[in-house]
Specification:
There is one protein chain. With 373 residues, the chain is an alpha/beta fold. Helices cover 38% and strands 24% of the residues. It has 14 helices and 13 strands. A 7-stranded mixed β-sheet has the order 9-8-10-11-7-12-13, sandwiched between helices.
C-alpha cells in the first residue's frame, strides 16, 4: 500500500470520528498533515479533504464537504481580523497554531459562491540555505548591500522559503536591524547577531503600505515585504531600495522578464515610463525559482539569478526586457546564472530527467548545448 493510500485510509477513519458526523474536524486533519509530511490541505465543496504530498495531490477517503462544512471548520480558527475580512470581502489570510504540531498558513476564500480553504503547513524552524539544496550561487543574495531584491516563482515554488533562508543567513552573520512585513507571518525568526521585528498585516498594522511607511521611520537596515500586492507598496519599496535600504520581496512570476514586467504593469500606462526609471535605479537583483521532480522522487529547485548592472538597467529603462537573458550571461562574474545552466547541472548530476529539464527551459537550445558540453 502506498503512502498516499495509507493517508486516505487514515483520513477516512478520522473523518468518522470527527466532531460532526458529516465532516472531519480541522485539527485532526492538520495533525495528519504533520504525520504524513503533507505540504498543503485543500478543502473544497463537493470533494473530500485533499492533501498534497511531495507535489502530488490526492483526494482522501471520507465524506465530501459542502461550503458550510468548510466555513464551520475553518472560520472559527482564525483571528478576529481575518474572520471580519472574510465576512466583508469573502477572502482572508491568516496563520493558526496547533499545540504540539506547529503553525499553518490559511487562505479562506469563496469559489462558485461556496467557502473553500487552502492550508499550508509552515516549518517549525527557519531553514538554512545549505539545507534547501538550492542552486550554487544563491549565497550572493546575502551579500547585497542595498537596493531592491525580487524573488519570483509560481505558487508553491518555494520562493518564500528561499527568502526566509536568505534572511536567516544574514541574521546569523551580520549585526543588522531587520523588519519583516507579512500577511500572515510564515517563518518566525529568532534574533541571532541581527535584531528582527516581524509585523503581521491585520494584527500589527492595517495594510502593507502603512506598515512599510512606518518601517522606514524605525531605522531598518533590511526590510522584507512578504509580497508586493499593490502599486503603493511597490512604490514605497522601490523608493526605499533607491535610498540606501536593502529590500527583499516576492512576486508570483515564472521568468526574469515577467518579474520586472509585473512591477511595471501594476501601474497605470501613463506612469509606466517613470516607473521603469525608478525600477532601474532601485533594482539590485532578480532571482526566479521553480521546482523540478527528482528522478528518485521529491523535487529540487532550479533557478536563474540576475545581478543587475548597467546593461540590465538600460534594458529596463528602454523596456527591452527580452534582452535580460543576455545580461545574465554577461554578468556571470557578478554572480548571475541562467536557468539553463542550473538545469544542465542537475541533469548531469543525475538529479532530474533530461526531458523534465527541456520542458522547463526557456532557451532549450542553450540547455542542449550546455548538457552536451
Amino acid at each position: 500500500m502506498s503512502d498516499l493510500d495509507r493517508l486516505a485510509e487514515e483520513l477516512g477513519l478520522l473523518a468518522q470520528e470527527g466532531a460532526r458526523p458529516d465532516a472531519p474536524g480541522l485539527e485532526p486533519l492538520l495533525r495528519l498533515m504533520a504525520t504524513r509530511d503533507a505540504s498543503d490541505l485543500l478543502l473544497l465543496a463537493g470533494e473530500p479533504p485533499t492533501m498534497r504530498v511531495h507535489g502530488r495531490v490526492a483526494r482522501l477517503d471520507g465524506p465530501t464537504l459542502d461550503g458550510e462544512d468548510v466555513e464551520t471548520m475553518v472560520l472559527g480558527e482564525l483571528a478576529p481580523h481575518a474572520q471580519r475580512q472574510f465576512r466583508e470581502v469573502g477572502i482572508a489570510d491568516a496563520s493558526i497554531r496547533v499545540a504540539g504540531v506547529g503553525r499553518f498558513r490559511v487562505n479562506l476564500h469563496r469559489e462558485r459562491g461556496r467557502a473553500a480553504a487552502a492550508i499550508r503547513m509552515l516549518p517549525r524552524t527557519v531553514p538554512r540555505l545549505a539545507s534547501l539544496d538550492l542552486p550554487a550561487g544563491i549565497e550572493t543574495l546575502t551579500t547585497i548591500p542595498q537596493g531592491l531584491v525580487l524573488i519570483g516563482g509560481a505558487t508553491g515554488s518555494g520562493k518564500t522559503t528561499t527568502m526566509a533562508a536568505v534572511i536567516e543567513e544574514i541574521n546569523r552573520r551580520d549585526a543588522k536591524h531587520i523588519i519583516t512585513i507579512e500577511d500572515p507571518i510564515e517563518f518566525e525568526h529568532t534574533n541571532q547577531r541581527s535584531v528582527i521585528q516581524q509585523i503581521e498585516v491585520g494584527v500589527d498594522a492595517p495594510d502593507f503600505p502603512t506598515a512599510l511607511r512606518a518601517a522606514l521611520r524605525q531605522a531598518p537596515d533590511i526590510i522584507v515585504v512578504g509580497e508586493m500586492r499593490d502599486p503603493e507598496t511597490m512604490r514605497i519599496a522601490m523608493a526605499a531600495g533607491e535610498t540606501g535600504h536593502l529590500v527583499f520581496s516576492t512576486l508570483h512570476t515564472t521568468d526574469m522578464p515577467a518579474t520586472i514586467a509585473r512591477l511595471i504593469d501594476s501601474f497605470p500606462p501613463e506612469r509606466q515610463s517613470t516607473v521603469r526609471q525608478e525600477i532601474a535605479a532601485a533594482l539590485s537583483a532578480v532571482y526566479v525559482q521553480t521546482l523540478v521532480p527528482r528522478v528518485q522522487g521529491g523535487r529540487v529547485a532550479a533557478a536563474q539569478l540576475l545581478m543587475v548592472g548597467y546593461g540590465a538597467r538600460q534594458h529596463i529603462r528602454k523596456n527591452t526586457l527580452q534582452h535580460l537573458h543576455q545580461e545574465i550571461t554577461i554578468s556571470r562574474r557578478a554572480g548571475s546564472f541562467t536557468l539553463e545552466e542550473c538545469l544542465s547541472r542537475l541533469v548531469k548530476a543525475g538529479a532530474i530527467d533530461r526531458m523534465e529539464a527541456i520542458a522547463r527551459a526557456q532557451h532549450p537550445d542553450d540547455l542542449d548545448q550546455s548538457i552536451r558540453a
